[in-house]
Structure formats: structure tokens, C-alpha cells
């Protein structure tokens, strides 16, 4: 049996960033579990480009030394913009080797309450007792599959997250459902890979994200753009500045927070997809009414009465956070967490209503706003957690380097893309 002060479940951008920050607390025993960057390596398509800009794709670290720039210099291999997925994965793995070289890649199969905090059971049966737990397990458990596809096997209708290689669909007819980045980029990659693609989406139009500060703008327009858009690159003009500051967002009435969230993360595609999709037929304002297998193919009916029988349906239908779907959380523990529509209600330091149990990343969105759905949210989350934990443990036993604490304000920590 191993003991630690804080166990971090997850080695994606959030788990790694939180690890790097908490390790600045002298004397604090931090154990981190998970396969590094595995969601990015297994559940996103080859050839993908990051939707977030250069600045917003930096994983926060306490000394600003584990940046994309440093990685680029160290690897002696320039990174193009938008950042390609494979380069971002390499960056994440490099970050992990610096910040968490002793990462334990074993899976946590159970977390339950214990008189000293929490008992974690690993895949091989080993037990870890930890005073606190930070859940940074990502969105992989929250895949959203529309009920219309309940009777269609995954071989005929699959979620975008199930594919690494979309080239397997070359020569096939594929219907892509959705109008978010994942659906649109998958449609572009399928089309470029030789599939016959059609997009169907409920939205009446596709929203394109323009990029906050374009190098093609003149000086005045760039200044205005910088005023309206925070470097965090989440949300439309003006709103972007507000959602970049969770401390300002949190006290607002819930109805306003919900509206801001809706405006910031509604389905949209990066502007660089426009040209790549111009020859892909797009059927907007339409919903799927039914879907059924027909031999080796799938028949889909739309609400305009039209039907098509195609080789495959790719569901770009996103994710719906529901922490009860984290199968490693003991049901009694999940039940004890104060939740709203699947999200834990979090207090300062990303702590849930179960003392010592923290959530970062997408599950923190309801409490800290849309930033938490993106890598850029690591800046606020990690600093906030560091402050909280250092105060809780500061009773003389541990000391934090003051310079690591900085400010929680994500905007102050970042500068715009040039
Ligand atoms: C197609 C697609 C494109 C995206 N593009 C962008 C983008 O351009 N920019 C952006 O900011 N965001 C993007 N996102 C969102 C992105 O997924 C999140 O920003 C990011 O992954 C959040 O990091 P995370 O650390 O919370 O989760 P993840 O990166 O998913 O990491 C989760 C970690 O938890 C570990 N884990 C899970 N369960 C266990 C367990 N039981 N035991 C041990 N370890 C466990 C995993 O091994 C993994 O290490 C995109 C998402 C998708 C689906």
C-alpha cells in the first residue's frame, strides 16, 4: 500500500499542469496516474489541427518554462500554425517528461472514501491512500450518442472519438452529423481522404470562428480586436474578455452565466475549414428522425422526409458531462457529490462538496465557465488549485515558492498571438 498527500487522476493537459504546479509545494507528496496525452493520441483523427490558437494551446506551468516555444526550440523542429495534432501530442509528452517523469501509467479502477481521505485501487489491485484526489480524467467517458442510433451497431454508426484513422472510409459514402469543430474537421478529412461525404446538422447555419487577432488586420483593427478578444480565445467579441476571468464570471446570476456559456461554446468551426469544405454537400436545419441497419449499410431518415442509405454515419455529436459516468468513482462517493445536471458544484480550489475531492477540466465548466473545456483553462485551474492547497497545507509543514502562486487571472498570464 502506497500513501500520498494528493493523487491526481489523469495525465492529459489538466493532470500534467496541476502536477507541475502542486509539485512546487515543498514536502507535498503528489502522485499522478494515467497514460500521458492518451485521449489526444487515440481519440482524435490523424491530420487534425488544433482549433485553439498558439497562445491558447499552451499547457500552464508554474515557471512559464514548459511552453510551446521552448518545446519548439528544444526539438529543433518548427511548429506550423494552426498547431498540428501530432506536434501538440509531442509537446504534451515532452511536458510530461519534465513535469511528471515518475508518472504512474496504471489505471485507477476505484476511488472510495477512507478515514484518512480516499482509497484508490489500481488496475493491478494495488492500493493507494491519499488525503486528497484531483480528478483530471477528461471527457472520454462522456461521449454523446443520439438515441436514434441505439439500434445501429458501431460498425455502421460511430462517434468521432472512435477513430484515429479516417482513411479507412476512402471510397465509402459517409454521413457526418453535427456542425461543431469535430464534425466539420472530420468531414474535411474524410473528403480529402476520398470518402463521399454529406454533412447534416440541426443548426440553420454553420458558425465560423474567425480567429481573435488576425495578422491580416491593420493596426487599429488589431487593437480593437485585442480589446474585444482575450488571448484565451474562447467566446465571441466582448464575452471572450469576461469568460477569460472566471472570478468575474462566477458571481453573476446563473441565468447570465448559462447564456454566456451557451454563446461561448455553441457548435462552430475554425475559419480555415471553410475552403476545405466547399465541395462537401451540407444539409442544415435538419434532424435525424430514425436510423436502422440495412444489411451492410445504414438507412437514415431526416425530418424533411428524405432518406438515404449510406455506408456509415459519423456522429460528431459531442460530449455531455456527467461525472456518474466516471466508472472509477464509487457510487456512494458520486452520490455524496453535490451535482447539477451531471456537473459537480465546485467551490474555491475546484473542490467538490466532498472535502478533499477536486475536479478539473470539463466537469468544472458549470462552476468556472467555458474556459475549462479547453487547454487554456489550465492557467486558471492550476493556479487556483495551487493557492487553495498551499493554504490548506501551509500550517508550517510545507512552504510554497511565492513566485509560483502568481495571480489566478488567466488573462494576466497570457499575451495575444502575434
Ligand atoms: C476532436 C477534439 C478536438 C479538440 N481540440 C481542442 C483544441 O484545439 N484546443 C483545446 O484547448 N481543446 C481542444 N479539445 C478539448 C480537449 O479535449 C480538452 O481541452 C483537453 O483534452 C482537456 O484535457 P484533460 O486533461 O482534461 O483531459 P484528457 O486530455 O482527455 O486527459 C485525460 C487523462 O485522464 C486519464 N484517465 C482517465 N481515466 C483514468 C483512470 N481511470 N485512471 C487513470 N487515468 C485516467 C487518461 O489516461 C488521460 O491521461 C478538443 C476535443 C476534441 C474531442
Q: Topology, please?
A:
Blueprint: E1 2-9, H1 13-22, E2 30-33, H2 38-42, H3 68-75, H4 85-99, E3 108-114, E4 117-122, E5 127-135, E6 157-159, E7 173-177, H5 181-192, E8 196-201, E9 208-209, H6 219-228, H7 239-243, H8 246-249, H9 254-265, E10 269-270, E11 282-284, E12 288-294, E13 297-302, E14 307-310, E15 312-315, H10 331-336, E16 339-340, E17 343-344, E18 357-359, H11 365-368, H12 378-393, H13 402-405, H14 410-413
Parallel strand pairs: 1-2, 1-5, 5-18, 6-15, 7-8, 7-15, 8-11, 9-10
Antiparallel strand pairs: 3-4, 4-5, 12-13, 13-14, 16-17
Helix pairs in contact: 1-4, 1-12
Bound molecules: flavin-adenine dinucleotide (FAD).
Largest sheet: 6 strands, mixed
Instruction: Note the gap between the termini.
Output: 50 Å
Helix content: 25-40%
- Tell me what portion of residues adopts beta-strand conformation: 15-25%
SSE-based structural type: alpha/beta
Task: Write down the oligomeric state.
Answer: single chain
Number of helices: 14
Given as residue ranges, the uncertain stretches (5+ residues, pLDDT < 50) are: 396-400
Q: What shape does the CA trace take?
A: globular
- What small molecules accompany the polymer chains? flavin-adenine dinucleotide
Number of strands: 18
Structure description:
This protein has 418 residues and is an alpha/beta fold. 28% of the residues lie in helices and 20% in strands. The chain is built from 14 helices and 18 strands. It has helices at residues 13-22, 38-42, 68-75, 85-99, 181-192, 219-228, 239-243, 246-249, 254-265, 331-336, 365-368, 378-393, 402-405, 410-413, and strands at residues 2-9, 30-33, 108-114, 117-122, 127-135, 157-159, 173-177, 196-201, 208-209, 269-270, 282-284, 288-294, 297-302, 307-310, 312-315, 339-340, 343-344, 357-359. The strands form five sheets. Strands 1, 2, 3, 4, 5 and 18 form a six-stranded mixed beta sheet that branches. A five-stranded parallel beta sheet has the order 6-15-7-8-11, covered by helices on one side. The site of flavin-adenine dinucleotide (FAD) has 31 residues, from helix 1 and helix 2.
Amino acid at each position: 500500500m502506497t500513501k500520498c498527500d494528493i493523487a491526481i487522476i489523469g495525465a492529459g493537459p489538466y493532470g500534467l499542469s496541476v502536477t507541475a504546479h502542486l509539485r512546487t509545494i515543498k514536502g507535498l507528496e503528489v502522485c499522478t496516474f494515467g497514460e500521458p496525452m492518451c485521449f489526444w493520441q487515440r481519440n482524435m483523427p490523424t491530420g487534425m489541427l488544433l482549433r485553439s490558437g498558439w497562445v491558447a494551446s499552451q499547457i500552464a506551468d508554474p515557471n512559464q518554462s514548459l511552453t510551446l516555444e521552448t518545446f519548439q526550440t528544444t526539438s529543433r523542429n518548427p511548429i506550423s500554425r494552426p498547431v498540428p495534432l501530432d506536434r501538440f501530442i509531442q509537446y504534451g509528452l515532452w511536458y510530461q517528461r519534465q513535469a511528471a517523469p515518475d508518472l504512474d501509467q496504471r489505471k485507477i479502477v476505484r476511488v472510495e472514501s477512507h478515514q484518512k481521505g480516499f482509497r484508490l485501487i489500481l488496475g493491478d489491485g494495488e492500493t493507494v491512500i491519499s488525503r486528497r484526489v484531483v480528478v483530471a480524467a477528461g471527457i472520454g467517458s462522456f461521449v454523446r450518442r443520439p438515441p436514434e442510433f441505439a439500434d445501429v451497431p458501431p460498425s455502421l454508426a460511430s462517434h468521432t472519438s472512435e477513430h484515429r484513422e479516417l482513411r479507412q472510409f476512402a471510397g465509402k459514402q459517409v454521413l457526418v452529423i453535427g456542425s461543431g469543430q469535430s464534425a466539420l474537421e472530420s468531414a474535411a478529412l474524410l473528403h480529402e481522404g476520398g470518402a463521399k461525404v454529406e454533412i447534416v446538422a440541426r443548426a440553420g447555419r454553420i458558425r465560423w470562428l474567425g480567429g481573435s487577432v488576425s495578422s491580416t488586420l491593420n493596426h487599429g483593427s488589431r487593437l480593437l480586436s485585442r480589446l474585444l478578444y482575450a488571448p484565451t480565445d474562447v467566446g465571441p467579441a466582448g464575452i471572450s474578455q469576461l469568460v477569460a476571468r472566471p472570478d468575474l464570471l462566477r458571481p453573476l446570476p446563473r441565468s447570465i452565466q448559462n447564456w454566456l456559456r451557451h454563446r461561448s461554446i455553441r457548435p462552430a468551426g475554425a475559419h480555415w475549414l471553410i475552403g476545405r469544405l466547399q465541395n462537401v454537400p451540407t444539409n442544415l436545419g435538419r434532424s435525424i428522425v430514425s436510423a436502422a441497419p440495412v444489411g451492410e449499410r445504414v438507412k437514415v431518415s431526416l425530418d424533411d422526409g428524405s432518406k438515404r442509405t449510406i455506408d456509415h454515419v459519423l456522429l460528431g455529436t459531442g460530449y455531455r458531462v456527467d461525472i456518474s459516468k466516471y466508472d472509477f468513482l464509487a457510487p456512494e462517493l458520486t452520490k455524496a457529490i453535490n451535482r447539477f445536471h451531471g456537473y459537480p458544484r465546485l467551490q474555491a480550489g475546484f473542490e467538490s462538496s466532498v472535502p478533499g475531492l477536486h475536479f478539473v477540466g470539463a466537469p468544472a465548466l458549470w462552476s468556472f465557465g467555458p474556459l475549462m473545456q479547453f487547454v487554456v483553462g489550465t492557467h486558471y485551474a492550476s493556479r487556483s488549485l495551487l493557492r487553495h492547497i498551499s493554504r490548506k497545507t501551509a500550517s508550517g509543514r510545507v512552504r510554497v515558492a511565492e513566485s509560483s502562486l502568481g495571480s489566478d487571472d488567466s488573462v494576466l498570464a497570457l499575451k495575444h498571438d502575434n
